[in-house]
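User: My instructor asked us to take a sequence, write out its structure as tokens, and then describe one feature of it. I'm not sure where to start. Here is the sequence I was given:
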Amino acid sequence: MMFSIGDTVFYGAHGVCIVEDIQDQNFFGNTKAYYILRSFHDTTLKLFHPVKSEDSKLTPIASKEKAELLLDTFKNPPDEWNDRATERTNNYHKIIESNNHFMIAQMVNTILRKKNELDQEGKKLASQELQILKQVTPILHKELSVSLEITVEDVANRIEEIIVKH
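Assistant: Let's start with the prediction itself. The structure tokens for your sequence are:
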């Protein structure tokens, strides 16, 4: 898929970016066309992505309809909790690498629901899950906020309201 200057895109673990330019760049003695991207999450971050790439992590930003469906994911019950922390963490990393927004939203849903359950028992969520939330949640919230044209805070509040109701 080709993108144009000014397009808003989703770039894997970097989240929402804007295509600032398309230029020929020479990396490792190989000159080819690259998208020059600016991260919405961290505006100091400038990224380069080849225009032609077999395994591109660059996708169009979610449509408003898709964003609403992603929010609906938080109405789902949590996935079954795996008591083996290493297996859980490995599974989470596979989900993140898949770049499947619905799987990522369901993963966040499961972790948030477990966190709420543990909070009510006066317990804490494991550091691995807290790290996953810290990594993924801002990216997910930013994409949904751009797609739905609302603030990141509004997205977080909507997700919290959904989880509390369901």
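For the description part of your assignment, you could build on this observation: The beta strands are 8-11, 15-27, 30-39, 46-50, 58-60. Try explaining in your own words what that tells you about the chain.
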